[in-house]
Amino acid sequence: MNWEDLKELIEQGDPDVLAADLGEIGPADRRALAKPLADFERSVRQAGFYTAQQFSSMLSIAGAAVLPMSTLAPWLSRNSLDRPMRPDHHRVLRPYGAPAFDHVLALLRRRDVPWLPQLAEKLAQRLRPRGWASSHHWRLIVAIAGDVLPDSDGFVYHWPEMIGRDATTIVDELRRDRRFLALVPRLFEVDGVARRLADSWAPDSWPSALAELAATGEVDRLVLLDGLLARLQRGGKQADVVALIALHDKLSPDLDELAPRGGDYAALVPDSHSTVAGMAQRELQRLDEANRLEVDVLLDVSRAMFFRPEKKLVRAQLSWLDKAIRRGRAEALAVLGGAFGHESADIQERALKLVLKHADELDADVREELAEAAAALPQDLRARAAEAFGASEAAPEPAPVPVAASRPEMPPPIASVDELVTAFAQHVHEGDPAQRERILAAMVEFAFADRQALRRAFAPLQEQSPWYAPGLPDWSQQRNWIGSPSEGSEFTAVLRAATGECRGDVTSPIPRVDEIPGEADWEELVTRGVDYGTVSLRRLHEIALGLAYAPRPYLMSTPTDASGLIAPEALAERLERAAEQGFEPWEHDLVVAMLRLPRDAAIADRVRGLGAAGAQVARWIDGGGLGTPEIRREVVPVKKYDWRGMHFEDRTRVTVAFPDSADPIRKSFDSTATGRYSATLREQNATPDLVPAHRDLSAAHQVAAFADGAKGSATVLGRLVDAYGPIGEGMTTVLAYALGAREPADRAGVVDALITLTARDGLRGADIAHAVVELVARDEVVLGRVVQAVRDATRAGLVEFAWEVVAVLIEGLLPADGERPRTALADLLALGVELVEQVRPAGPVPGVAAIAARKGSSRFVKEARRLHQASNTG
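The structure assignment produced for this chain is given below.
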């Protein structure tokens, strides 16, 4: 077979015919065909992502028959083993036929070469953990691996998602291919796999399957036990430990297995997820009750447990210590002082009662130690401790002085094309707005100054990632893979256009929609998907079109401040240079530049005569810029998608309404006009870096990003903090949601934000508290999480601020007569007791006296009495 015949077969696109004709070629044909085949693949990848995908499966088949092992691993990794693709009458690629996998496997085996296991190892090494992996590529590795499967991190990481797809059980698959049994220990060693063990295509689950194999001796149960304990010690979130806890429960280790591992279980108590710490506590208590736990381990575990915030675990530890003391382990009394400093007054009181219960067993040294620890108790409990064992009145530690974070500095411009390539590769994974602006500015400037140098610098990246290949913007090709416009796809289009052909000069306008391939498709999709479109999305799209058809020497909209602000003098200078060089800025580039001006920009007279762009900026400034919209917290119908399909739910959002929304720029930010109340996916129309002088407007559009547990919200919150402008209901609502964030790391972020906003902008606790009251009353925020965050703010030194918040929350959330108190309201009252001792408010909190006068001994009533007494004492 010669190259022309092979090329014709590939282009015909019939995988059965191609595989049949390649099945009989010999070594001489392979050597002759290898280079032209590689050259052809390079040419289709350079032709664009669309063309590369059209030939991808056919190239996999040809490569399997022709190429040597050294070339095959990267070749098969970047080409598809799935069904071939061909364009339909709309130029949309559609799959057809059977997957290329069967042909590739058959051709590899027909070659009868000894290096297939080595190829499997090389393919496995190219699989990346935490990324997407083709099931066909993974199955090919298994099929050609030989007697031993690869154990690379990527291969093991994707194992759980690949097994059970044919509806067989995990146990059956592992027994059918016993090579997998040797990989079981790696399930606990590769990061990220533990989370994947909780899901399965198979009818059974990974925990039950592994436990069954351990019961029959096919897998060593102690290997499983040691592996899951080692993995649990590395920590993680709830999703990382669910399957491991389930496996541990199914293994149900006996005392002989637990005893030599007491130290492993004890290591899980201090920092692990609460479910892991609870499991460790339960197993250690089993050992203790069987008199097989060293007393030093019991004491260390207790000390560590008293530092945990989960009251359920600490109460269980106190009960365990009570039983241990009654069994004769009086040494445990000494560690009870550690519970005196717990953040929960309920825990403090329980610990004190336990000490008083066993007061007769206290020796002089323990009494002295407990008396010193009692200084951490609230005033009323300190008095009870003093009567029992002479608690000391230690001088309180000085409260920390909160320090506002400094504003980040704008990084310098990118100075070379090599630096640009590095920055681009990093930004793809990080997505920092300041970095994106540096990249966009450099892309435009370098493409104008020396496009050939830019193309050469990006060639290696584009060779490795064909979707970055140079080319004119054409949405009709991109839509096959992306579906609808997004900022990520437009950012990619900028690179493709900057390194591709340029069909205009500095005076050229961007062509009309009907003059650009696929542009009508883009306009239709973006208008349908985002009502009025988004300013930032249109700007990115415009930059790509401008680079291809109407190049400019530089952008008007590049910020001069890390927040996104543009110094007015810098914009005026850019407009003056543009007038001298005889070009008009791109439309949306200029719009974004105006949005990024400070509220007090005073350059209207300076730029008024600088062409159409200068006149537009002057009109914008004379008209008050973006203006002062009405920003209000309201309950509105919000689209939701679940098992019921699309429906509306009433949720709290912050609406933005401009008194005069006729201006198209203002209209795009007017949620009452667009019906868009939040920032999700393509609706990111008011990011902090886009309107940095209008923080509250931006916050209003970001509320939805915080409304469901505020997961991963710390970065957005930090950018809002560093923006400028007054704080109103947009920002206070965001902060209220952030105080109730589901994850502790996100609540830590809001404490930092409160410190900075209090110092920089005079943020008042009462304003946030009113928003929290509304959200808690509507069950959109969990009060217990808010209490924890406010307590953390207190420890950070925001004592006065925290009292403002707590006082408003108590007054707003106290139940009326006959109503049950809300969960965590007792914790809120207890926090109030702590703060009253430090703040000494002028009077009691309204409503607390009435609760304190109620009959009963519930914790809610008891904490109300304590707060009432502390307020009156103050």
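Interim note for the steering committee: Residues 81 and 136 are 6 Å apart (CA to CA). Residues 27-46 form the longest helix (20 residues).
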